[in-house]
Amino acid sequence: MKVYKLFLILVLIAFTACGTGSNNQSKNMGKDKRTLVKFETTAGNFTVELYNETPKHRDNFIKLCKEGVYDSTLFHRVIKNFMIQAGDPDSKTASDTAMLGGGDVGYTIPAEFMADKYFHKRGALAAARQGDDVNPEKASSSCQFYIVTGRKFTQDQLLNMEGNINQQREENIFNELAHQRMKEIYKFRRAGDNDKLLALQDSLEVQAHQQLKDEGYFKFNPEQIQTYTTVGGAPHLDGSYTVFGEITEGMEAIEKIEIAKTNDADRPIINIRILKAIVEE
User: Fold this and answer.
1) Closest C-alpha among 177, 179, 200 to residue 188
2) Among 43, 104, 107, 121, which is least packed, fewest CB within 10 Å?
3) What gap in Å lies between CA 64 and CA 70, rounded to an integer?
């Protein structure tokens, strides 16, 4: 059993902290037609296919593209062997020294996780979001998105990652259970009753472990293992961010963006801009 040391002692601090290509034709055989969006950028063009099984993200993305929200925005966060991120409306007119990544269009999109089917393989299109501490529902950003570049993993690395993901899930459950018992925690703290604090901590650990067991442990399926060991991706993000599409053409443009020189904030030193996002109908 994992012990969340000193959590109940430090809980006030914890809860006030803030965070901030495949073949398209064969893929669509026997399925409803999927929407394609072509991006023209200063680093080249690429096309994404939107999944019908994530309709809230699909419809919102189409809407923003048609409204020109992405036109003139920057790829403001680029990390080699991980992902490239864009869609911050504030980046359209940002100075070279501006900190980007906090812009939105005023709402969020409910999570649409389908991790067993649509996961963070190389070329996946997914929605950015705020961290779990301020966004426990894992709702997606209204406009910011990223495209996975990633890297390849061994089966042993994936097995270790499963353990880390399940540990983080259990800790998140524990934190939420503790949040629900804040009145008791305050009472015990005021009284200086560490015995009762530790007893409550033990009880919540047992509850968190059982809840995770009831919900089911995270485990990569055979398709994910095959993909991550041969094609690559970012498996640690599965089940935490909504994947709602993938690159069908122009991965070479993504690769060009991925290797751009960046500053300490992971922003490309030379701006890489989306010129236009075109919904193909």
Assistant:
1) 200
2) 107
3) 7
Class of domain 22-152+230-280: mainly beta
Tell me: pLDDT of 105 over 90. Answer: yes
Query: Count of residues for the chain?
Result: 281
State the Cα–Cα distance between residues 11 and 230, nearest whole angstrom: 42
Q: Is the pLDDT of residue 10 over 60?
A: no
Kindly list the domain boundaries of the chain, sorted by start residue: 22-152+230-280
| Spacing of C-alpha 59 from chain mean position | 19
Tokens of 99: 């900190």
The pLDDT score that the predictor gives to residue 30 is 40
Task: Tell me how far apart the alpha carbons of residues 167 and 169 are, in angstroms, rounded to a whole number.
Answer: 5
Answer yes or no: are the C-beta atoms of 165 and 224 closer than 8 Å: no
Q: What SS3 class is residue 71?
A: coil
| Res 28 pLDDT > 70 | no
